[in-house]
Structure formats: structure tokens, C-alpha cells
């Protein structure tokens, strides 16, 4: 019997690194080659059109329809010069990927021929027949009229022969059906709120924007091995597989030498990413075997989100060229580290980063503190919602498991900053603020030395850590659209800043001095948000108890965590900031619950199939071999001798019989649990049933399969094992 596993393993061992092309130019020269960036706008657009478009991009003014035709014309010219024949509105539906539908530029010219056409109207708006995108019922199929509209703050780009136009995707009645529309609204809210607070310190600040620097973790696996694992192929993770004897215990992978075949992949990927304007900066091996990371330089949040989506699809494409598959699932393998996507977040003015620590003046330090404390207030008030924003069927394997941020959101500040907050809380006000004659206000806020802050002992267990001039949200899943987390975080910070300003203004209106009012409010908030600050080990069990007593959200069930979106405080916040309304939130939650159910459903089906077609046949085959052997021993030896000599094989025969029996019963129960769950009408209740009754059975069945993997002859085992998936590169 041919064993596919041996074939693909042998093939994988033979693979050589792919040839890569080193561009003749330097990265700084080909960076953004396929992006219609400012330089190209300047070259291809009339002067006045260029200026109007820059105004739209920089100041969020409305794009005048009258210039759209001129913009489209310039874009088309540039695109055609680059061999482009098609265009597409590129958007981010509520599935985790991106969507596109290509149309050719060609139109009849009225003389029996064809011409290349691309109008302002086509650039600005389209109505993709997108009735099969998840919409939570907002857009029923009979009125499948979602439309996509250009987001001029994210530049168009070329992939192969297609001009891609970043767009928002909304229903005919104006509800957001994607991630980008609410993200843009949340960014607007936080920018406005932060700018207003900035005015206390720097009256000439004109604009505050949000930065995002993501770090993308991923696994690579040889394509042949991947194709021999139906579970990886269909669910993105291994549903079974015994630990490899060696995995990550030697700590020899992190920052290790990058294997040649991988290096070739990375090089190709980076060249293409740079050409698309993604500022790739860092690459390295991650903790688990065959796990890697790529991080660009941070960018404005909306653009960074687009670039992350683009990079993820680029990775998949480039990986194939190198006979790899990229695994973006948060937990493709049990027992070793999973993959996350750290989201480094900060706010910045047109004059500098707001979370940057030491200022030259006490006012600067106070500004710094205000933004730190109000971010903490946001995380404290909405810690459950923030968790919901990063929760998914796949990331649930990572959160709360023993090697990743726990399913509790807390913030790590480091010794320096924690001490400073304590000082603010405990010092009496006269010490903090004394009015000294002609010199005016003097703030007694100790300076924070830059070096010390930068070297803060980084607590790797914290899901939301302050790391010098930014917060690092580490619980985001590797497969997720960063927008989900960024919508919630920016909304929550906007709300906190608005509330801060309201209270300060009320005190000022009552006659209090500005700085004194700010200090009063900040001192209150430092006290309030204290429960969110946690400097200890987030992985230990005591923290779970402690967090519970602090009133932090400790729920771990994914479908129940989604409820946080529909808490009145959450709906109130989103509505007040104009980010999402109740109807949108309810619809989006339906999508979340349905997606959760579907993913577990698929896993359960694949588990059933694999068990019946691979595992049990292989095990019984081996069992018969052993049985034959036992039989023949009795033919050769006297019974008492044969008894002795066959005891080991008999034991194995028995263990196989018992475990396959348990597995079969398990699969029957799994099917039954699915049937029961499928009858449930409410998508929330159905998702909960899948979580409570279906998912645990997968784990139960797996345990027995993994034990069988250890005792069944290696020669017969058909599925590539962990040691092969993880160590062949
Ligand atoms: P780490 O030690 O966490 O791996 P890196 O130096 O690799 O840190 O940076 C991680 C990411 O954080 C990069 O994308 C970097 O550009 C980004 N980053 C740095 N400063 C800021 C900031 N002020 N705001 C947002 N992102 C930032
Ligand atoms: Mg980091």
C-alpha cells in the first residue's frame, strides 16, 4: 500500500530554495512602484485637481464629483502605462479576507471597436452584486444593493493587471457592511476628541491622527505535507497530531538563522510588498518551529490596516511560488506557541507623538499623563468589549491557553510609569501644583527619563502593554483584520477623552484654573482605572482570581464574549460617536455568531471524515497485522510460550480496540450534538451550543487519536506528523 505521507515527506526534503530576482534598483527606489502615491498624482493629475485631492486626503474634506473624472483619467493613464487592463473596488467584508470583482476598462467606442474607459463615476462608486457577503440580515438578498465607495485616504494600487481601489462597503440604506467604514468613523472620532484635549496644551495643533504598527506572525509549511493534511487544508489547523518529541523546548528557533528556503520566500514577499508601498522593516524566526514574523514601519491606522490585509493575501500568493503554504490560523498546532498580530498603537499630532514620554516642560509631562491615563480609562471601561474585538473561533485557542495573553484584558505600564501614577494619586495637590508668584504655574510632576522608559522591563505576558511611546495590543489574532480591534480601541479612547474634556471644562467654567482642573480630573481617573493596571505574570492562575475580584471581564466562552458588543455602554458609546448604530451592531453580532458556528461545524465534519477514512482504517489494519502475528506465534510455539511472547502485541490490539471504540462513539456523539445544535433557531444560542457541546468533543476525540498515533506502526500512518510539518523547511 503506497503511503502518501512518505511520498510527500521525501519530496519536501528534496526541495531547494526558489530562485529569486534581485531588483536592479534599491528598495528606496522601487518602494511604492505600484502605488498611485503623491508623486504619481503630481505627475498624472492637473495641478488644481492634485491640490484638491491632497486636501481631501489630508483634511478629510469631501471629494468633489467634478474632479473625480480628472482623477480617474490620470489614474487610468498611469495604470495603462503599467500594463493594467482591469480595475476593481477592493473592500473588506466581514469575512476576514478582502473582496474584489474585476471589470475590464474596455467599452465600445461606437464605431465597432473598443476603447479603454474609466470614469470618475466608476472610480467613486460601484454596486457589486454582493448578496453572498455576510451582512447579518441588514441587506436581504431581495434588496442586494450594497455599494462600495472609494476611500481616497488610502491610495489605489496595481496587482498584476488590475487597478485596485480601496473602498468602504455599505448597504443601500447606509449601514456599514465592512470593517473600513466604522474604522474611518472611529478614527475621525478619536482624532477630533484628541485634538480638542490637545488644545489645553498646544493651541496650534491642527490635527491628531492614529498610528498603527502591526507585527504579523505566521507559520510556513511545505505544500506537499500540507496537501496530505485535510484538516490543515480545510480548517487551517491540525485537528489531531501528537507532540513532536522535540518542539520549542530548546528555544533554538527564535531569532535563529532563517532557513534558506524561507529566506527566499521572505525576500520575494518583501520586494513585492515594498513595491506596493508596504514599508517592511523587520523579519525573524519566531518562538515555535517553522514560525516567523514580519513587521513594517508603523503608518496611519487606516493605511496600516489596508496594508496588513494586502500583505496577508500577498503572503499566500508568494508562499505558493515557493512551494509553501502560509498558515495564518492563530493555533495551527497544539502544544506550541500560536500566532498573534501585535498592534502597536499611538496618537500623533502634526507636531509629534502624543504618547511620547518626556517633555521639556511640566506641561508636556502633564499632556503625556493625560493621554496615558485616558487610554487606561478607555481600556478599563471597555475591557470586555476590547476582548470581544479580538475574539474569534480561531483566536479562542490562543487566548486563555497557557502560552498567550490570558482572556483577561489588563495593562502593563512598567515600574517608572506606575510609580508616577502613584505619585499623582497620592501627593497632595499643593505639591503637584503651586502657584508661585510671577512665574505662574509650576507643576511638580517628575520628569521621566527617556532611556529608562524605553528600556522598561517588557512584560511579555501583558495583553496591553505600554512600550515607550505607544501601547502594544498583543491579544489580536494573526488571522484577524486589525480594524476590529482598532475600531473599539479608538472609539473607547475617544469616549474617554471626550469625558475628560467635559469634566475639565465644567471645572474651568466654575472658575478653576486650567492646570488645576486637569490635575483634579486626572487624579480621579488614576484612582478609577487602577484595576486595569497589572504588572505581574498574566499567565498564572492567581491572576484569574485577582482579576475577577477587580471586576475585570473574565469570560472565556467566545460566543458569550461577543455579547459585550450589545451591552448598553457599548451601544451608547458607538452611537454617540457615530461609529455604529444599534442595528449595525446587532447585525454584525449575528455575523460573528454565525461565523463561529460555521467554523466549529466544519472542524467537526472534517474530524468525522478523517476519523472514519483515515484513523480507524489505519488502526484496524495495523491491528490485523498484529493479530496475524499473534496467531502465527501459536502455530510456531507451544501455547504457554506463545502466551508469553504475544502479551505485548495483545495489549496493543486491545488498546487499539478500546480507543477506536471510544473514538467511534465520540464521533457519533459529535454528530448528534451538531444535530441538536443545528435545530436551534437563535444564532447566539446555536453558537453557544457549538461552543459548549460540540467543541469539547473535538478535543476528547483528538486525545485518543494522538495516543493511537504513538502506538500504530509509523509505516502505516497516513497523515504527516508534527515532527514533519514543523521541522521540514
Ligand atoms: P518589538 O520589540 O515589539 O518587536 P519593534 O521595534 O519591532 O518592537 O516595533 C514593533 C512595531 O511598532 C513596528 O511596526 C514599529 O514601527 C511600531 N512602532 C514604533 N513606534 C510606534 C508608535 N509610536 N506608534 C505605533 N507604532 C509604533
Ligand atoms: Mg512587539
TrEMBL record:
<dbReference type="GO" id="GO:0004356">
    <property type="term" value="F:glutamine synthetase activity"/>
</dbReference>
<comment type="similarity">
    <text>Belongs to the glutamine synthetase family.</text>
</comment>
<dbReference type="InterPro" id="IPR014746">
    <property type="entry name" value="Gln_synth/guanido_kin_cat_dom"/>
</dbReference>
<dbReference type="InterPro" id="IPR040577">
    <property type="entry name" value="Gln-synt_C"/>
</dbReference>
<dbReference type="InterPro" id="IPR052725">
    <property type="entry name" value="GS_Type-3"/>
</dbReference>
<dbReference type="InterPro" id="IPR008146">
    <property type="entry name" value="Gln_synth_cat_dom"/>
</dbReference>
<dbReference type="Pfam" id="PF12437">
    <property type="entry name" value="GSIII_N"/>
</dbReference>
<feature type="domain" description="GS catalytic">
    <location>
        <begin position="179"/>
        <end position="615"/>
    </location>
</feature>
<dbReference type="InterPro" id="IPR027303">
    <property type="entry name" value="Gln_synth_gly_rich_site"/>
</dbReference>
<dbReference type="GO" id="GO:0006542">
    <property type="term" value="P:glutamine biosynthetic process"/>
</dbReference>
<dbReference type="Pfam" id="PF00120">
    <property type="entry name" value="Gln-synt_C"/>
</dbReference>
<dbReference type="InterPro" id="IPR008147">
    <property type="entry name" value="Gln_synt_N"/>
</dbReference>
<feature type="domain" description="GS beta-grasp">
    <location>
        <begin position="85"/>
        <end position="174"/>
    </location>
</feature>
<dbReference type="InterPro" id="IPR022147">
    <property type="entry name" value="GSIII_N"/>
</dbReference>
<dbReference type="Pfam" id="PF18318">
    <property type="entry name" value="Gln-synt_C-ter"/>
</dbReference>
<protein>
    <submittedName>
        <fullName>Glutamine synthetase III</fullName>
    </submittedName>
</protein>
